[in-house]
Every structure is written in C-alpha cells, then in structure tokens.
C-alpha cells in the first residue's frame, strides 16, 4: 500500500486558532505503534477546548486535533503483534501510556502521569494518517461501519465508563444533563441497553426530538422550565429524584444544581469539562443525604472493548452528521453556539 510523504490536515498553529487546512509530513510509526489511514473522525467538544487552550494542561502547538479516528492500518512497528496490515483500527484520546506506573499496573492507564493524549499532547486524527501505540488502539471488526463507529471511540467509551462509575442498576433512574449532545445521545442508549430509566435534560426542540427518538421517557428543557429541580424529581417514578446524575454540560450551572435533584444516597458523576468551572455542594445536604460526587474520565482498554461490543451488537447507534474535513472550522462555530444535536463525523479525504 502506497503511503505518501505529505498529507492533508487541519492544523492549529497557535493556541486559540485559527485552523489552517494544509499539507504536512505523513508520520511514521515507532516500534510499538501503528499507522492508520484515517477514513473518519468524530468531532468532540474536547477538540475545541484543546485548540482554545481552555484547560490547565500544556497543549502541543502546532497541533492536529481529533481523537475519535477510525480507519485502516497501513504500517506498523516491528514490535506490534496486535494488528496486521489491512485491519480496521480506532485511535482514541489515550494514545499511549508508560505501562510501568501504579495506575498502568492496575489498569487505570488513563490516570498515567505520562499518558500521551491524541489531539492534545500528540497529533490526533484530523489528518489523513495518524499514529498510535498498538496496545491502546481499538480493533474494529471488519463488518462495523467506520463512520458510525468513530463517535464510540471517545463519546461512547467515556459515558459507558461514567455509567459503570455511577453504579446505577437496572430499573433505577438516571438524569443525563447534556443529553442531546454527542456524549448524551450515546449515554441514553447505553443506559437503555442496561435497563436503566432516563430523564434527559437539555435545551431546544431539535435536541428534544432526538432524545425522544432515542427512547427517553422524559425530556426536561432547561430553556423552558420554571423549576428544573422540581421537573426532574417529578419525572422519577416515586418523585424522590434520580438515583444518579451524569453531567455532560459545557456550562458550570448544571454542576451546581445536581445535588438538589439527586435522591439520598445518589451518585453524581462529573464528565463535562466547562472551562474554569467549580463543583460546589452544600456540606450539610451532602452529608446527611449521603450523596456521592465523583469525577469520571475516559475508560481503560477493557472499557473500550466493552463499549465497542455494545455497538457491534447493534445496541448503540450514534446519531451523527457527515461533513468533509475542510469544514471543521464551521463545525467548531456551531459547537460554540450550542447548535449541534448528536455528533459531527468528518470524512477524511483519500
């Protein structure tokens, strides 16, 4: 298979952008890496945060963003045994880790202090060819469509991990805040597949229609309700509130509201990362009602295998819109305006 010396990519040349669509050298895989010819890449809110430099974590510049890339293995290092040329593979947020620290030894490799992050500390998937450590790349079954699988590689794995961290059981009620976005649309489906009841919280008629199409029982529109807390409680069968809350919002206020409508002994899982936001909760209320508040990051390698297996079995279907790689700046604009229902997936030119 012929691999060109130069390739097309979307490049942020400085923090804050703008993006420049241009040709750059094609990377070469190291001994433990695979080179994947990207066919599709999902667009995550994290990609916007990375370009804007929103987080207190040094970001590589110039940067090729993206971390939901699905494609075909076209080259590999001499130490790679997990993949063969022609296999379908996914490049995820966790591009690599040290494999030697306490967290890696305990399969908590996302917490590795020396982890390499696609589209943040190393170049990601908004390019025609991308590299990643073979041990952290996902093997995608040949019969699985690559465009639909791309959002599962971050959005799917992240919310699947959050559900596991929440400990919510079949028959219980889960409130998903930001249910109409890329992560929320998948969280609803994983919850439904697990027998969990969902209260979807988001804003706008398009997101409401999408959530209802996905089978949510109740949609609470934060732009229209006069009492969000009362509406979420009322949506639970006994009126006591949600057993768990997954926070996927890109704003701070929902993170402060969650303790008001989660039930006693309930669990709040923070996943969304609004810039400079704070988590606050009244101490008395949190203690006497025994509320748990936890952060949940991306899943480990086994979480990735399980999340993709749900998809391969037809239990998960990510709502997405296809767009060419050159349209990424316009997609970021829509994202900043909160106008995207579901996920955008970029088609990478051949």
From TrEMBL:
GO molecular function per UniProt: alcohol dehydrogenase (NAD+) activity; zinc ion binding
Superkingdom of source: Eukaryota
Keyword Cell inner membrane: no
EC number, UniProt record: 1.1.1.1
GO CC terms in record: cytoplasm
Entry keyword set: Metal-binding, NAD, Oxidoreductase, Zinc
Protein name (database record): alcohol dehydrogenase
């Amino acid at each position: 298979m012929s691999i060109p010396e130069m390739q097309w990519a979307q490049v942020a040349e400085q923090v804050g952008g703008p993006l420049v669509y241009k040709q750059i050298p094609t990377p070469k895989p190291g001994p433990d890496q695979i080179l994947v010819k990207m066919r599709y890449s999902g667009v995550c809110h994290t990609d916007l945060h990375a370009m804007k430099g929103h987080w207190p974590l040094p970001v590589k510049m110039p940067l090729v963003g993206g971390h939901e890339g699905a494609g075909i293995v076209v080259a590999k290092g001499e130490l790679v045994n997990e993949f063969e040329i022609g296999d379908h593979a996914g490049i995820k947020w966790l591009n690599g880790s040290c494999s030697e620290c306490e967290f890696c030894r305990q399969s908590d490799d996302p917490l590795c202090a020396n982890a390499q992050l696609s589209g943040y500390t190393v170049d990601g998937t908004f390019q025609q060819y991308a590299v990643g450590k073979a041990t952290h790349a996902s093997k995608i079954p040949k019969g699985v469509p690559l465009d639909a699988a791309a959002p599962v590689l971050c959005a799917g794995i992240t919310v699947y991990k959050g559900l596991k961290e929440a400990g919510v059981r079949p028959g219980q009620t889960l409130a998903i805040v930001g249910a109409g976005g890329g992560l929320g649309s998948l969280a609803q489906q994983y919850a439904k597949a697990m027998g969990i009841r969902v209260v979807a919280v988001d804003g706008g008629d398009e997101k409401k229609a999408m959530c209802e199409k996905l089978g949510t029982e109740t949609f609470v529109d934060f732009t229209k309700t006069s009492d969000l807390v009362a509406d979420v409680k009322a949506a639970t069968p006994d009126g006591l509130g949600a057993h768990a809350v997954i926070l996927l919002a890109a704003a701070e206020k929902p993170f402060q509201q969650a303790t008001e409508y989660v039930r006693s002994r309930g669990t709040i899982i923070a996943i969304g990362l609004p810039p400079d936001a704070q988590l606050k909760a009244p101490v008395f209320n949190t203690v006497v009602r025994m509320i748990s508040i936890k952060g949940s990051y991306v899943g480990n390698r086994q979480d990735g295998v399980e999340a993709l297996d749900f998809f391969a079995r037809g239990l998960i279907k990510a709502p997405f819109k296809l767009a060419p790689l050159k349209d990424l700046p316009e997609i970021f604009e829509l994202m900043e305006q909160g106008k995207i229902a579901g996920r955008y997936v970029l088609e990478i030119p051949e």
